[in-house]
Amino acid sequence: MRQIKYETIVNAVAKLCIDSCHKLPEDVLLALKEAQRRESNPRAARIIEKLIENANLASSEMIPICQDTGLSIVFVEKGSEVFIEPPKDNPSATIDDAINAGVELGYKEGLLRKSVVSEPLNKRENTKTNTPAIIHHFVTSGDRLKLSVMTKGGGCENKSQFKMFNPTEDKAVIVNWIKDVVIEAGANACPPFVIGVGIGGDFEQCCLISKKALLRKLDDSNSDSFYAEMEKEILSLINASSLGAQGLGGDTTALAVKIETAPCHIASLPVAVNIECHAHRHKEIVL
């Protein structure tokens, strides 16, 4: 059994929050540079150039990439041999407590905008800590703890959609629905996008894997050749729309499409589309 101190998790999450809001992942930056290089529309090329310049300034000057510093979404992969050692003054504290303490610390020290309300419909009072985070737990073998933090903006999240198809539905119908969801998002979700797609599972798992798909590297492909080709097909259709960077026209509406699948009921075919803007902010650490 390997022990990891509560404080180690707090500090790690705080750093992940700060870094994700200021430093665009290298694969995303490279994808933007490649999009600019290939862009045939001069206006779109200039827009993408500005997105790259913004990302570089954010990193060098430690200014958030976007004013919306996002909802903190944390994916936890905890090895079965890992034990979280709680602080002496709070022996009942859990890993979720440590993650939320880390989010609060990171958003305070990083001077990041707090965007969480404590209740969704009535008073909508800001918690002023950007907590609670959205935390997803996965148990793995071994003695490692992997934490992946995504700081997800509200504009792109608002354009994400879910639909339950009939299990007899044709692949082309699903592909076109995914494409239409992305195009309908338009400028409001700040293209060029990264698109996470979940197919299968049930209502909640489908949405979850569509978001988890966004953690994949942009230059990889689904390990199943059928879904790898489907990723390429959807990306091609989205970019053929000419919606373009910031919705002002161009060759690149999306940088990547990532599909994740799960087994599902014989009577079901759930599909979820999770849209991410060009500021695709996420960081991870293995403790």
Would you identify the regions where 5 or more consecutive residues have pLDDT less than 50? none
Number of helices: 8
- The helix/strand class is alpha/beta
The largest sheet, given as strand count, sense and whether it forms a barrel, is: 4 strands, mixed
What is the terminal separation in angstroms? 14 Å
Mean pLDDT: 97
Shape, please? globular
Fraction of residues in helix: 25-40%
- Beta-strand fraction estimate: 15-25%
Domain module count: 2
Tally of DSSP β-strands? 10
Radius of gyration: 19 Å
Order of secondary-structure elements = EHHHEEHEEHEHEHHEEE
Query: Largest beta sheet: what is the strand line-up?
Result: 4-2-5-10
Explain this structure to me?
The chain folds into two domains: 2-19 and 65-152, no CATH class; 154-280, no CATH class. It contains eight helices and ten strands. The strands form three sheets. Strands 4-2-5-10 form a four-stranded mixed β-sheet. The protein has a four-stranded mixed β-sheet with strand order 6-9-7-8. The chain is an alpha/beta fold. The longest helix has 20 residues, at 42-61. The model has no long low-confidence stretch (mean pLDDT 97). Helices cover 38% and strands 23% of the residues. The protein has helices at residues 6-22, 26-38, 42-61, 95-109, 154-157, 171-185, 203-212, 225-240, and strands at 2-5, 71-79, 82-85, 134-140, 145-152, 161-165, 193-200, 254-262, 269-276, 282-286.
List its salient traits.
single chain, 287 residues, alpha/beta, 4-stranded mixed beta sheet, 10 strands, 38% helix, 23% strand
